[in-house]
Amino acid sequence: MSQNASTHWKILDDAHTALRTAVAGVEASGWGWATPCEHWNVTQVLQHAAGDQVGFAAAITGGPGPGEDPFAPSGTLAGDPVEVAEEAMRASAAAFATIAHDADAVPTPIPPHSFPAGLAVGACALDAAVHAWDIAMATGQPSPLSPELARALMPTAQVIVDPVRAWGAYAAVLPEAEGDDDVAVLLRYLGRDPRWTA
Question: What InterPro entries would the database entry show (predicted)?
């Protein structure tokens, strides 16, 4: 499967495009910069995002999981950042390409470890998309999150996010503000300030 091949899941294809765009836009000096993920720099966010994509793939295929704990990223990449991202996205794209839209029990790395297909792929897409936003904001890029993608991700977020906030996967919900668009509403639900700047 080529790096841009369709998975037949638009939400995941769009989220991967967002992550691919954000990673490709990081300048050489930007990998150590602070991000909206407190205590993690850009490299660590990429490691986490890539590890999660591999984790979703492994849950479906039974193949190997991420090489290190995505929740304790070392800050040292094993290779070129773009290729680290691409390899992880290829794995999750290939795995979800095998999942039928009406599958009712798709294995996932997040509790309860099985979801209907739409929620499972939405969870994988949500992870890629929000970390694409983190990387883009940290490195002065435009937001890679479109209102359309944010709207598509919100129903999944409302199901899966609250149970994993205790892990530190997402911060507490931030209050909505006047003028928030769909992207801002999603980000605040995920505990991110849509006006965050480095």
Answer: CHP03086 (IPR017520), DinB/YfiT-like (IPR034660), Maleyloyr_isom (IPR017517), MDMPI_metal-binding (IPR024344)
